[in-house]
Design brief:
Number of strands of chain A: 7
Oligomer: heterodimer
Shape of chain A: elongated
Largest sheet of chain A: 5 strands, mixed
Distance between the termini of chain A: 64 Å
CATH class of chain B: Mainly Alpha
CATH architecture of chain B: Up-down Bundle
CATH topology of chain B: 3 helical TM bundles of succinate and fumarate reductases
Number of helices of chain B: 10
CATH class of the largest domain in chain A: Mainly Alpha
Order of helices and strands of chain B: HHHHHHHHHH
Structural class of chain A: alpha+beta
CATH superfamily of the largest domain in chain A: Alpha-helical ferredoxin
Largest interface: A-B, 56 and 53 residues
Mean pLDDT of chain A: 94
Strand order of the largest sheet of chain A: 2-1-5-3-4
Number of strands of chain B: 0
Mean pLDDT of chain B: 87
Number of helices of chain A: 8
CATH architecture of the largest domain in chain A: Orthogonal Bundle
Structural class of chain B: mainly alpha
Protein backbone atom coordinates (compact mmCIF):
# COMPACT_ATOMS: atom_id res chain seq x y z
CA UNK A 1 0.00 0.00 0.00
CA UNK A 2 1.43 3.30 -1.06
CA UNK A 3 1.18 6.44 1.07
CA UNK A 4 -1.75 7.55 -1.02
CA UNK A 5 -3.93 4.53 -0.30
CA UNK A 6 -4.75 1.33 -2.10
CA UNK A 7 -4.78 0.45 -5.76
CA UNK A 8 -7.92 -1.46 -6.71
CA UNK A 9 -8.44 -3.24 -10.01
CA UNK A 10 -12.03 -3.59 -11.10
CA UNK A 11 -13.80 -5.69 -13.72
CA UNK A 12 -17.13 -3.96 -14.07
CA UNK A 13 -20.06 -5.15 -16.15
CA UNK A 14 -20.91 -2.54 -18.78
CA UNK A 15 -24.06 -2.85 -20.79
CA UNK A 16 -25.60 -0.05 -22.81
CA UNK A 17 -29.23 0.84 -22.27
CA UNK A 18 -31.43 -1.37 -24.41
CA UNK A 19 -28.56 -3.70 -25.30
CA UNK A 20 -29.09 -7.43 -24.91
CA UNK A 21 -25.54 -8.18 -23.92
CA UNK A 22 -22.63 -6.54 -22.21
CA UNK A 23 -19.08 -7.25 -21.15
CA UNK A 24 -16.57 -6.73 -18.38
CA UNK A 25 -14.44 -3.59 -18.69
CA UNK A 26 -11.22 -3.32 -16.67
CA UNK A 27 -10.58 -0.22 -14.57
CA UNK A 28 -7.93 0.67 -12.03
CA UNK A 29 -8.62 3.10 -9.20
CA UNK A 30 -5.63 4.60 -7.39
CA UNK A 31 -5.46 6.28 -4.01
CA UNK A 32 -8.38 4.35 -2.54
CA UNK A 33 -8.62 5.00 1.21
CA UNK A 34 -9.64 2.09 3.46
CA UNK A 35 -12.33 4.26 5.05
CA UNK A 36 -14.11 4.80 1.74
CA UNK A 37 -17.30 2.93 1.02
CA UNK A 38 -17.46 0.82 -2.10
CA UNK A 39 -19.79 3.35 -3.70
CA UNK A 40 -17.45 6.24 -2.87
CA UNK A 41 -14.71 4.34 -4.63
CA UNK A 42 -17.01 4.02 -7.66
CA UNK A 43 -17.78 7.75 -7.41
CA UNK A 44 -14.08 8.49 -7.76
CA UNK A 45 -13.85 6.16 -10.73
CA UNK A 46 -16.86 7.87 -12.34
CA UNK A 47 -15.30 11.33 -11.81
CA UNK A 48 -12.17 10.27 -13.65
CA UNK A 49 -14.27 8.69 -16.41
CA UNK A 50 -16.30 11.89 -16.84
CA UNK A 51 -13.13 13.99 -16.87
CA UNK A 52 -11.80 11.79 -19.66
CA UNK A 53 -15.05 12.27 -21.55
CA UNK A 54 -16.19 8.66 -21.08
CA UNK A 55 -19.59 7.55 -19.96
CA UNK A 56 -19.98 7.13 -16.18
CA UNK A 57 -20.86 3.71 -14.76
CA UNK A 58 -24.53 3.58 -13.89
CA UNK A 59 -25.43 2.14 -10.48
CA UNK A 60 -28.40 2.50 -8.14
CA UNK A 61 -27.94 4.18 -4.78
CA UNK A 62 -29.81 6.49 -2.49
CA UNK A 63 -29.47 6.69 1.30
CA UNK A 64 -25.94 5.28 1.50
CA UNK A 65 -26.53 4.19 5.08
CA UNK A 66 -28.00 0.73 4.55
CA UNK A 67 -31.69 1.45 5.11
CA UNK A 68 -33.26 2.17 1.73
CA UNK A 69 -32.45 -0.97 -0.25
CA UNK A 70 -31.71 0.91 -3.46
CA UNK A 71 -28.09 -0.08 -3.99
CA UNK A 72 -27.12 -3.58 -4.90
CA UNK A 73 -24.53 -5.29 -7.01
CA UNK A 74 -22.63 -8.53 -6.99
CA UNK A 75 -19.16 -7.73 -5.70
CA UNK A 76 -16.48 -10.39 -6.02
CA UNK A 77 -19.11 -13.01 -6.80
CA UNK A 78 -21.30 -12.30 -3.76
CA UNK A 79 -24.40 -10.09 -3.64
CA UNK A 80 -23.63 -6.95 -1.58
CA UNK A 81 -20.01 -8.01 -1.31
CA UNK A 82 -17.86 -9.84 1.18
CA UNK A 83 -19.27 -8.60 4.48
CA UNK A 84 -22.35 -10.38 5.90
CA UNK A 85 -25.29 -8.25 6.97
CA UNK A 86 -24.29 -5.28 4.83
CA UNK A 87 -25.68 -3.45 1.85
CA UNK A 88 -23.33 -2.49 -0.98
CA UNK A 89 -23.08 1.07 0.37
CA UNK A 90 -21.97 -0.26 3.77
CA UNK A 91 -19.05 -2.19 2.28
CA UNK A 92 -15.79 -0.43 3.15
CA UNK A 93 -12.64 -0.63 1.11
CA UNK A 94 -10.77 -1.87 4.19
CA UNK A 95 -12.44 -5.21 3.47
CA UNK A 96 -10.21 -5.51 0.39
CA UNK A 97 -6.46 -5.64 0.00
CA UNK A 98 -4.16 -3.33 -1.92
CA UNK A 99 -3.89 -4.63 -5.48
CA UNK A 100 -7.07 -6.74 -5.34
CA UNK A 101 -9.02 -7.39 -8.52
CA UNK A 102 -12.76 -7.18 -7.86
CA UNK A 103 -15.49 -8.22 -10.29
CA UNK A 104 -18.68 -6.18 -10.18
CA UNK A 105 -21.84 -7.52 -11.81
CA UNK A 106 -25.50 -6.54 -11.69
CA UNK A 107 -28.08 -8.62 -9.80
CA UNK A 108 -28.98 -11.26 -12.36
CA UNK A 109 -32.46 -12.74 -12.64
CA UNK A 110 -34.88 -12.82 -15.53
CA UNK A 111 -37.57 -10.84 -13.63
CA UNK A 112 -34.92 -8.19 -12.80
CA UNK A 113 -34.52 -6.79 -16.28
CA UNK A 114 -31.16 -5.11 -16.75
CA UNK A 115 -31.59 -1.43 -17.54
CA UNK A 116 -28.00 -0.25 -17.87
CA UNK A 117 -24.60 -1.32 -16.50
CA UNK A 118 -25.31 -2.31 -12.89
CA UNK A 119 -28.91 -1.04 -12.72
CA UNK A 120 -31.75 -3.55 -12.81
CA UNK A 121 -35.51 -3.09 -12.73
CA UNK A 122 -36.86 -4.48 -9.45
CA UNK A 123 -40.46 -3.39 -9.93
CA UNK A 124 -41.46 -7.08 -9.83
CA UNK A 125 -41.10 -6.72 -6.04
CA UNK A 126 -43.53 -3.79 -6.07
CA UNK A 127 -46.10 -5.82 -7.99
CA UNK A 128 -45.80 -8.65 -5.45
CA UNK A 129 -46.25 -6.16 -2.59
CA UNK A 130 -49.30 -4.70 -4.29
CA UNK A 131 -50.94 -8.14 -4.17
CA UNK A 132 -51.16 -8.16 -0.39
CA UNK A 133 -48.10 -6.91 1.44
CA UNK A 134 -50.20 -4.46 3.42
CA UNK A 135 -53.32 -4.23 5.62
CA UNK A 136 -56.42 -3.20 3.66
CA UNK A 137 -58.52 -1.82 6.49
CA UNK A 138 -57.94 1.51 8.14
CA UNK A 139 -56.32 0.59 11.42
CA UNK A 140 -56.57 4.13 12.78
CA UNK A 141 -53.97 5.86 14.89
CA UNK A 142 -51.57 3.97 17.12
CA UNK A 143 -53.52 2.12 19.84
CA UNK A 144 -52.72 2.44 23.53
CA UNK A 145 -49.82 0.30 24.60
CA UNK A 146 -50.98 -3.24 25.47
CA UNK A 147 -54.54 -2.55 24.26
CA UNK A 148 -53.82 -5.54 22.00
CA UNK A 149 -51.79 -8.03 23.98
CA UNK A 150 -48.98 -9.08 21.63
CA UNK A 151 -46.34 -11.40 23.09
CA UNK A 152 -42.88 -9.87 23.03
CA UNK A 153 -41.40 -12.68 20.94
CA UNK A 154 -44.18 -12.28 18.35
CA UNK A 155 -43.47 -8.57 18.10
CA UNK A 156 -39.77 -9.36 17.75
CA UNK A 157 -40.39 -11.88 14.97
CA UNK A 158 -42.59 -9.36 13.15
CA UNK A 159 -39.93 -6.67 13.54
CA UNK A 160 -37.17 -8.99 12.30
CA UNK A 161 -39.18 -9.80 9.16
CA UNK A 162 -40.16 -6.15 8.70
CA UNK A 163 -36.45 -5.27 8.54
CA UNK A 164 -36.51 -6.39 4.88
CA UNK A 165 -35.62 -3.43 2.66
CA UNK A 166 -36.52 -5.18 -0.60
CA UNK A 167 -33.07 -4.81 -2.11
CA UNK A 168 -33.28 -8.04 -4.12
CA UNK A 169 -30.00 -9.56 -2.93
CA UNK A 170 -31.87 -12.77 -2.00
CA UNK A 171 -32.90 -13.20 -5.64
CA UNK A 172 -29.42 -12.29 -6.86
CA UNK A 173 -27.72 -14.83 -4.59
CA UNK A 174 -30.20 -17.65 -5.03
CA UNK A 175 -28.86 -20.34 -7.38
CA UNK A 176 -32.45 -20.58 -8.67
CA UNK A 177 -33.21 -16.83 -8.68
CA UNK A 178 -36.08 -17.40 -6.26
CA UNK A 179 -37.73 -14.49 -4.47
CA UNK A 180 -38.83 -16.67 -1.56
CA UNK A 181 -36.95 -14.79 1.16
CA UNK A 182 -38.34 -11.39 0.15
CA UNK A 183 -41.91 -12.66 -0.18
CA UNK A 184 -41.68 -14.68 3.03
CA UNK A 185 -40.48 -11.63 4.98
CA UNK A 186 -43.42 -9.59 3.73
CA UNK A 187 -45.94 -12.36 4.50
CA UNK A 188 -44.35 -13.31 7.81
CA UNK A 189 -44.17 -9.77 9.15
CA UNK A 190 -47.96 -9.35 9.07
CA UNK A 191 -48.72 -12.93 10.11
CA UNK A 192 -47.33 -12.27 13.61
CA UNK A 193 -49.60 -9.31 14.33
CA UNK A 194 -53.35 -8.99 14.93
CA UNK A 195 -53.65 -6.33 12.20
CA UNK A 196 -52.52 -8.88 9.62
CA UNK A 197 -54.80 -11.65 10.87
CA UNK A 198 -58.02 -11.13 8.82
CA UNK A 199 -56.23 -11.27 5.45
CA UNK A 200 -53.64 -13.94 6.22
CA UNK A 201 -54.89 -16.64 3.85
CA UNK A 202 -55.63 -14.31 0.96
CA UNK A 203 -52.30 -12.51 1.36
CA UNK A 204 -50.16 -15.65 1.18
CA UNK A 205 -51.98 -17.07 -1.84
CA UNK A 206 -52.04 -13.82 -3.80
CA UNK A 207 -48.43 -12.78 -3.15
CA UNK A 208 -47.05 -16.22 -3.97
CA UNK A 209 -49.15 -16.40 -7.14
CA UNK A 210 -47.67 -13.04 -8.20
CA UNK A 211 -44.15 -14.19 -7.31
CA UNK A 212 -44.61 -17.18 -9.61
CA UNK A 213 -46.20 -15.05 -12.35
CA UNK A 214 -43.18 -12.71 -12.34
CA UNK A 215 -41.02 -15.67 -13.31
CA UNK A 216 -38.88 -16.06 -10.21
CA UNK A 217 -37.39 -19.52 -9.73
CA UNK A 218 -38.41 -22.14 -7.20
CA UNK A 219 -36.67 -22.41 -3.87
CA UNK A 220 -34.36 -25.38 -3.25
CA UNK A 221 -33.55 -24.49 0.38
CA UNK A 222 -29.91 -23.65 -0.34
CA UNK A 223 -30.05 -20.75 2.12
CA UNK A 224 -27.71 -18.49 0.13
CA UNK A 225 -30.34 -15.74 0.49
CA UNK A 226 -30.02 -15.57 4.27
CA UNK A 227 -26.25 -15.41 4.02
CA UNK A 228 -26.28 -12.33 1.77
CA UNK A 229 -29.34 -10.56 3.23
CA UNK A 230 -28.20 -7.17 4.54
CA UNK A 231 -30.90 -7.41 7.22
CA UNK A 232 -30.11 -11.08 7.98
CA UNK A 233 -33.70 -12.19 7.40
CA UNK A 234 -33.88 -15.85 8.38
CA UNK A 235 -35.08 -18.67 6.12
CA UNK A 236 -37.32 -19.58 9.08
CA UNK A 237 -39.59 -17.00 7.45
CA UNK A 238 -39.73 -19.15 4.31
CA UNK A 239 -40.92 -22.10 6.40
CA UNK A 240 -43.54 -19.82 7.93
CA UNK A 241 -44.59 -18.58 4.48
CA UNK A 242 -45.19 -22.19 3.44
CA UNK A 243 -47.36 -22.78 6.52
CA UNK A 244 -49.32 -19.62 5.70
CA UNK A 245 -49.74 -20.79 2.12
CA UNK A 246 -50.89 -24.27 3.14
CA UNK A 247 -53.39 -22.85 5.63
CA UNK A 248 -54.65 -20.46 2.97
CA UNK A 249 -54.91 -23.19 0.34
CA UNK A 250 -56.77 -25.57 2.66
CA UNK A 251 -59.23 -22.88 3.75
CA UNK A 252 -60.05 -22.42 0.06
CA UNK B 1 -58.18 -17.21 -5.69
CA UNK B 2 -56.31 -19.66 -7.81
CA UNK B 3 -57.83 -22.98 -8.71
CA UNK B 4 -56.69 -26.08 -6.86
CA UNK B 5 -54.42 -27.41 -9.57
CA UNK B 6 -52.31 -24.28 -9.68
CA UNK B 7 -52.11 -24.16 -5.88
CA UNK B 8 -50.68 -27.69 -5.74
CA UNK B 9 -48.19 -26.99 -8.53
CA UNK B 10 -47.24 -23.45 -7.51
CA UNK B 11 -43.68 -22.78 -6.35
CA UNK B 12 -44.70 -23.54 -2.76
CA UNK B 13 -47.02 -26.41 -3.71
CA UNK B 14 -44.16 -28.19 -5.48
CA UNK B 15 -42.01 -27.90 -2.35
CA UNK B 16 -44.81 -29.37 -0.24
CA UNK B 17 -45.20 -32.30 -2.64
CA UNK B 18 -41.44 -32.90 -2.66
CA UNK B 19 -41.37 -32.71 1.13
CA UNK B 20 -44.28 -35.07 1.83
CA UNK B 21 -43.06 -37.66 -0.67
CA UNK B 22 -39.53 -37.17 0.68
CA UNK B 23 -40.73 -38.10 4.14
CA UNK B 24 -42.50 -41.15 2.73
CA UNK B 25 -39.32 -42.23 0.95
CA UNK B 26 -37.22 -41.67 4.07
CA UNK B 27 -39.69 -43.73 6.09
CA UNK B 28 -39.41 -46.45 3.48
CA UNK B 29 -35.62 -46.62 3.50
CA UNK B 30 -35.57 -46.73 7.31
CA UNK B 31 -37.91 -49.74 7.25
CA UNK B 32 -35.99 -51.25 4.32
CA UNK B 33 -32.69 -50.94 6.18
CA UNK B 34 -34.06 -52.43 9.39
CA UNK B 35 -35.57 -55.33 7.44
CA UNK B 36 -32.36 -55.93 5.52
CA UNK B 37 -30.38 -56.15 8.73
CA UNK B 38 -31.86 -59.67 9.06
CA UNK B 39 -29.19 -60.58 6.48
CA UNK B 40 -26.70 -60.37 9.35
CA UNK B 41 -28.67 -62.79 11.51
CA UNK B 42 -28.74 -65.48 8.90
CA UNK B 43 -30.19 -66.78 5.64
CA UNK B 44 -33.20 -68.43 7.27
CA UNK B 45 -34.13 -65.26 9.14
CA UNK B 46 -33.75 -63.07 6.03
CA UNK B 47 -35.80 -65.43 3.87
CA UNK B 48 -38.31 -65.72 6.70
CA UNK B 49 -38.62 -61.94 6.79
CA UNK B 50 -39.16 -61.82 3.01
CA UNK B 51 -41.82 -64.52 3.24
CA UNK B 52 -43.48 -62.72 6.14
CA UNK B 53 -43.81 -59.52 4.06
CA UNK B 54 -45.28 -61.44 1.14
CA UNK B 55 -47.77 -63.21 3.40
CA UNK B 56 -49.37 -60.10 4.94
CA UNK B 57 -53.01 -59.84 3.81
CA UNK B 58 -52.44 -62.80 1.46
CA UNK B 59 -49.88 -60.80 -0.52
CA UNK B 60 -52.13 -57.79 -1.05
CA UNK B 61 -50.11 -55.66 1.35
CA UNK B 62 -47.02 -55.81 -0.85
CA UNK B 63 -49.03 -55.01 -3.98
CA UNK B 64 -50.82 -52.06 -2.35
CA UNK B 65 -47.53 -50.83 -0.92
CA UNK B 66 -45.86 -51.01 -4.32
CA UNK B 67 -48.66 -49.05 -5.97
CA UNK B 68 -48.38 -46.32 -3.32
CA UNK B 69 -44.60 -46.21 -3.67
CA UNK B 70 -44.79 -45.84 -7.45
CA UNK B 71 -46.94 -42.73 -6.97
CA UNK B 72 -44.67 -41.44 -4.20
CA UNK B 73 -41.64 -41.79 -6.47
CA UNK B 74 -43.46 -40.22 -9.42
CA UNK B 75 -44.68 -37.18 -7.49
CA UNK B 76 -41.29 -36.71 -5.83
CA UNK B 77 -39.59 -36.82 -9.22
CA UNK B 78 -42.06 -34.65 -11.11
CA UNK B 79 -42.10 -31.95 -8.41
CA UNK B 80 -38.31 -32.00 -8.03
CA UNK B 81 -37.61 -31.99 -11.77
CA UNK B 82 -39.97 -29.06 -12.35
CA UNK B 83 -38.26 -27.17 -9.50
CA UNK B 84 -34.89 -27.85 -11.10
CA UNK B 85 -36.23 -26.83 -14.49
CA UNK B 86 -37.63 -23.48 -13.28
CA UNK B 87 -34.32 -22.79 -11.64
CA UNK B 88 -31.39 -22.03 -13.83
CA UNK B 89 -33.00 -22.30 -17.23
CA UNK B 90 -36.09 -20.15 -16.72
CA UNK B 91 -35.42 -17.68 -13.93
CA UNK B 92 -31.84 -16.70 -14.72
CA UNK B 93 -31.38 -16.76 -18.45
CA UNK B 94 -28.11 -14.85 -18.24
CA UNK B 95 -25.83 -16.29 -15.58
CA UNK B 96 -23.10 -14.73 -13.53
CA UNK B 97 -19.67 -14.61 -15.11
CA UNK B 98 -18.11 -14.87 -11.67
CA UNK B 99 -20.02 -16.17 -8.66
CA UNK B 100 -18.93 -17.42 -5.28
CA UNK B 101 -20.75 -19.09 -2.43
CA UNK B 102 -21.72 -16.60 0.23
CA UNK B 103 -20.67 -18.87 3.11
CA UNK B 104 -21.71 -17.78 6.58
CA UNK B 105 -25.28 -18.82 7.30
CA UNK B 106 -25.76 -20.38 3.87
CA UNK B 107 -26.81 -24.03 3.77
CA UNK B 108 -25.64 -24.45 0.20
CA UNK B 109 -23.51 -27.57 0.04
CA UNK B 110 -22.31 -30.09 -2.49
CA UNK B 111 -25.39 -32.08 -1.44
CA UNK B 112 -27.85 -29.27 -2.05
CA UNK B 113 -26.50 -28.41 -5.49
CA UNK B 114 -26.38 -32.00 -6.73
CA UNK B 115 -29.84 -33.14 -5.56
CA UNK B 116 -31.17 -33.53 -9.09
CA UNK B 117 -28.17 -35.63 -10.19
CA UNK B 118 -28.05 -37.87 -7.12
CA UNK B 119 -31.82 -38.20 -7.42
CA UNK B 120 -31.70 -39.30 -11.06
CA UNK B 121 -28.98 -41.82 -10.23
CA UNK B 122 -31.01 -43.20 -7.31
CA UNK B 123 -34.14 -43.73 -9.42
CA UNK B 124 -32.17 -45.73 -12.00
CA UNK B 125 -30.58 -47.69 -9.16
CA UNK B 126 -34.02 -48.39 -7.67
CA UNK B 127 -35.37 -49.66 -11.00
CA UNK B 128 -32.40 -51.99 -11.37
CA UNK B 129 -32.67 -52.99 -7.72
CA UNK B 130 -36.33 -53.93 -8.12
CA UNK B 131 -35.58 -55.98 -11.20
CA UNK B 132 -32.67 -57.75 -9.57
CA UNK B 133 -34.21 -58.54 -6.19
CA UNK B 134 -37.92 -58.49 -6.87
CA UNK B 135 -38.88 -59.41 -10.42
CA UNK B 136 -36.04 -61.70 -11.41
CA UNK B 137 -35.09 -63.81 -8.39
CA UNK B 138 -36.26 -67.01 -6.82
CA UNK B 139 -38.87 -66.16 -4.24
CA UNK B 140 -37.98 -69.23 -2.27
CA UNK B 141 -34.40 -68.29 -1.51
CA UNK B 142 -33.88 -64.55 -1.77
CA UNK B 143 -30.76 -64.81 0.37
CA UNK B 144 -29.01 -66.79 -2.33
CA UNK B 145 -29.96 -64.13 -4.91
CA UNK B 146 -28.57 -61.36 -2.72
CA UNK B 147 -25.43 -63.33 -1.97
CA UNK B 148 -24.87 -64.14 -5.65
CA UNK B 149 -25.40 -60.50 -6.66
CA UNK B 150 -22.75 -59.29 -4.23
CA UNK B 151 -20.24 -62.00 -5.08
CA UNK B 152 -18.81 -59.82 -7.86
CA UNK B 153 -16.52 -56.96 -6.88
CA UNK B 154 -17.77 -54.66 -9.66
CA UNK B 155 -21.43 -54.72 -8.66
CA UNK B 156 -20.52 -54.44 -4.98
CA UNK B 157 -18.42 -51.31 -5.54
CA UNK B 158 -21.10 -49.80 -7.79
CA UNK B 159 -23.67 -50.32 -5.02
CA UNK B 160 -21.36 -48.78 -2.45
CA UNK B 161 -20.89 -45.67 -4.60
CA UNK B 162 -24.65 -45.26 -5.02
CA UNK B 163 -25.15 -45.65 -1.26
CA UNK B 164 -22.66 -42.84 -0.56
CA UNK B 165 -24.52 -40.66 -3.07
CA UNK B 166 -27.79 -41.58 -1.34
CA UNK B 167 -26.19 -40.21 1.81
CA UNK B 168 -25.45 -36.95 -0.04
CA UNK B 169 -29.07 -36.77 -1.19
CA UNK B 170 -30.34 -37.28 2.37
CA UNK B 171 -27.90 -34.78 3.86
CA UNK B 172 -29.83 -31.98 2.17
CA UNK B 173 -33.14 -33.80 1.73
CA UNK B 174 -33.77 -34.58 5.38
CA UNK B 175 -33.87 -31.05 6.77
CA UNK B 176 -35.09 -29.65 3.46
CA UNK B 177 -38.28 -31.73 3.76
CA UNK B 178 -39.05 -30.11 7.12
CA UNK B 179 -38.33 -26.67 5.68
CA UNK B 180 -40.43 -27.34 2.57
CA UNK B 181 -43.46 -28.30 4.65
CA UNK B 182 -42.96 -25.35 6.98
CA UNK B 183 -42.31 -27.69 9.89
CA UNK B 184 -39.46 -25.68 11.28
CA UNK B 185 -38.49 -22.29 12.62
CA UNK B 186 -35.37 -20.43 13.71
CA UNK B 187 -35.20 -22.47 16.90
CA UNK B 188 -35.18 -25.95 15.34
CA UNK B 189 -33.53 -25.27 11.98
CA UNK B 190 -29.93 -25.51 13.27
CA UNK B 191 -30.78 -28.76 15.05
CA UNK B 192 -32.47 -30.21 11.96
CA UNK B 193 -29.51 -29.43 9.71
CA UNK B 194 -27.24 -31.27 12.16
CA UNK B 195 -29.69 -34.18 12.42
CA UNK B 196 -29.73 -34.35 8.61
CA UNK B 197 -26.01 -35.10 8.60
CA UNK B 198 -26.43 -37.75 11.31
CA UNK B 199 -29.36 -39.35 9.45
CA UNK B 200 -27.50 -39.32 6.13
CA UNK B 201 -24.41 -40.93 7.66
CA UNK B 202 -26.44 -43.61 9.48
CA UNK B 203 -28.38 -44.50 6.33
CA UNK B 204 -25.29 -44.50 4.10
CA UNK B 205 -23.31 -46.65 6.55
CA UNK B 206 -26.30 -48.95 7.11
CA UNK B 207 -26.71 -49.63 3.41
CA UNK B 208 -22.93 -49.65 2.97
CA UNK B 209 -22.20 -52.51 5.35
CA UNK B 210 -24.71 -54.88 3.72
CA UNK B 211 -22.91 -55.21 0.35
CA UNK B 212 -19.54 -55.35 2.15
CA UNK B 213 -20.76 -58.10 4.48
CA UNK B 214 -22.38 -60.06 1.66
CA UNK B 215 -19.25 -59.76 -0.50
CA UNK B 216 -16.98 -61.10 2.21
CA UNK B 217 -19.35 -63.71 3.62
CA UNK B 218 -19.85 -65.08 0.11
CA UNK B 219 -22.11 -67.99 1.11
CA UNK B 220 -24.29 -68.36 -1.96
CA UNK B 221 -24.48 -72.12 -1.61
CA UNK B 222 -27.07 -71.87 1.12
CA UNK B 223 -30.39 -73.50 0.36
CA UNK B 224 -33.61 -73.44 2.30
CA UNK B 225 -34.24 -76.66 4.16
CA UNK B 226 -36.24 -78.77 1.77
CA UNK B 227 -36.17 -75.99 -0.79
CA UNK B 228 -34.06 -75.14 -3.81
Amino acid sequence: MSDNGMTIHLKIWRQAQGATSGKFVDYTVENVLPEMSFLEMLDILNETLVQKGEEAIEFDNDCREGICGTCGMVIGGVAHGPHAGSTTCEIRMRQFKDGDTITVEPFRAKPFKLIKDLVVDRSAFDRIQQKGGFVTMNVGSAPDGNAFPIPKDHADHAMDAAACIGCGACVAACPNASASLFVSAKISQLSWLPQGEPERARRALAMIAQMDAEGFGDCSNHGECEAVCPKEISIGNIARMRREYLKGALKG
Amino acid sequence: MAENGSVAWSSVGKKVITGITGFALMGFIIAHLIGNLTLFIGPAQFNGYAHFLESILYGWFVIAFEVVMVFVFLFHMIAAITVAWTDRRQARTEGYRYAKNAGGKSRKTLSSTTMIYTGILIIFFVIGHIYLFKINPSHENLYATVSAAFSGIGFTIFTLVVMVLLGFHLRHGFWSAFQSLGWTNDKYLPLLTKLALVFAVIMAIGFFVIPVYMYFSGDSSFTMPGGH
